[in-house]
């Protein structure tokens, strides 16, 4: 008899193994690019819309950005934003996707798991919205930030304590940001040529955990479809109306490659649609990096899955 873990335990188990991960440090890009974290000025984000979830409670360190692996990352995000990437109106299908980058809830991979994903979706006629959600505070100085992450890797006691937390409480700001993102997209559906009933969500690593929380906790933010890209795959209790699920993971993922596939079994046992791609190689954090491994093809697989479910057919508003 299979014992399915509730959402809280799914996320807690993921965080015990992986939420302490600095997502960019495990990005494993295609080329041996510079892996140093170099502080950069916060880039202009003229299209970013501030969500109405307020400032992160108790925050004392303000948002900062750095570059690594030829990409850019945000950390200490204290105010959540949503950035639209809209398709050519002539190609708009009416479908939309909230994009949640990963980074262990301590940083966000804005290029590799955010903007680049959104641009690729817009090219397919799907309106995409990059969610820059609020993050757990980290030290202001880069060296101290790196040391704090190294300590988290080595602190087994802290990981054990993290596993006991209720994610609905510990990560309430991020869940609130996701819900606000859905509310904003649906409220502006006509202007953005979006069908409010065809708004899905895709997340990467910690962003995948946030996506699963949004899908399983439901309420007014429930996605029409979901995609879990290299997030934990522990079993869960699946509601009868769970959305179709797309999952992509590399077998050599150092965080979640050896944790079993209980999430897939849970969806199948509930007789809900699920598609699972297990790539032989790719590591963790492959995202939109162009690699020699077949994991690079995940986006094409995802696009075909969207087409199979009718989300690439024209239903423009």
UniProtKB/TrEMBL annotation:
Alphabetized UniProt keyword annotations: Hydrolase, Signal
Keyword Thylakoid part of the UniProt annotation: no
Gene Ontology molecular function, alphabetical: hydrolase activity
Domain Dienelactone hydrolase: 113-289
Signal peptide (residue range): 1-32
The keyword Signal belongs to this UniProt entry's keyword annotation: yes
Protein name: Alpha/beta hydrolase
Origin species: Massilia norwichensis
